[in-house]
Design a protein that fits this description.
With about 280 residues, this protein is mainly alpha-helical. The chain is built from 13 helices and no strands.
Length: about 280
């Protein structure tokens, strides 16, 4: 017979969670605080409050990091990566969950191994091939690499959602004359919506924050992303901590807003997909 947690244990758990949240928010709070302060005030006391809410740092950071170009490119790259990943991961998840594929355990092990292999091993051959094909700097081509990195974990997550859908749903669609593709598109895919949203959030955030692949394959000023734009500020604004803090705030603010807007879908998707595996 299970007993409810004691008041002391609940209090300790709440204190631990509050402490963890404060620890995670502290760096973001310091960035937001110092984004409104001049360089001299930050060096003197990074914990002091700003004397005024001037936006001069943000103006210099926006122009210096070329964020007007970077935000469009980052949205394009992250969005394309998300769409490619969802398309291929949903199809693979449906096949692995509903079809009796010989050696599917080996396929699962392969995906597990793929999540642990560092991408640095493939950078040189990939760049060589992309250079030969003349597609270095192409957003769709770079998105294929990012999608391949995110595919293993995406397939695992979506497979859990497909397994949680009763097999009777497929049988009913088959009795109504639907073929496997129609069953997937019109029956299974709509029921996978929580999982698709969860995977979309994870892949989008990973693509937005990605640096190694974009710095290697996105060459040229017109192909700069948000992360690459912020990196370019380190040389010009190395002695202007206020502009660097404002640039960091501009870089992370969109993804924080994006996650806050979709967090209820993310939480519901993670909990519903954890029922079966």
């Amino acid at each position: 017979m299970q007993t409810s947690a004691s008041p002391l244990s609940r209090t300790l758990a709440n204190v631990f969670l509050i402490g963890a949240v404060l620890l995670a928010l502290l760096p973001l709070a310091l960035v937001a605080l110092n984004a409104f302060k001049p360089h001299t005030a930050i060096v003197a006391n990074p914990l002091s409050l700003p004397e005024n809410l001037s936006l001069d740092n943000f103006a210099r950071a926006w122009n210096g990091g070329k964020f007007s170009i970077g935000i469009v490119n980052s949205l394009l790259l992250s969005g394309t990566t998300t769409l490619i990943t969802l398309a291929f991961a949903s199809l693979a998840a449906f096949a692995l969950a509903r079809r009796k594929i010989p050696g599917w355990q080996l396929i699962t092990i392969y995906f597990l191994c793929a999540t642990t292999v560092p991408i640095q091993l493939f950078l040189f051959p990939l760049y060589f091939v992309y250079a030969k094909l003349g597609i270095v700097g192409n957003f769709a081509a770079t998105s294929l690499i990012l999608a391949a990195i995110n595919l293993p974990i995406s397939i695992f997550l979506l497979r859990a959602y497909v397994i949680s859908i009763p097999q009777d749903v497929d049988d009913a669609a088959f009795m109504d004359g639907a073929n496997p593709l129609q069953t997937f598109l019109h029956v299974i895919l709509p029921l996978m919506r929580p999982g698709l949203i969860t995977v979309a959030i994870i892949v989008f955030l990973n693509s937005w924050n990605e640096f190694l692949i974009t710095s290697t394959f996105q060459k040229g000023r017109s192909n700069i992303t948000m992360t690459l734009g912020y990196l370019s500020m380190n040389g010009t604004y190395a002695t202007d901590q206020g502009a660097l803090m404002a640039g960091a705030f501009i870089l992370v603010a969109p993804i924080i807003v994006f996650f806050l807007l979709l967090q209820r879908f993310f939480i519901s998707g993670m909990t519903s997909g954890a029922v079966k595996g």
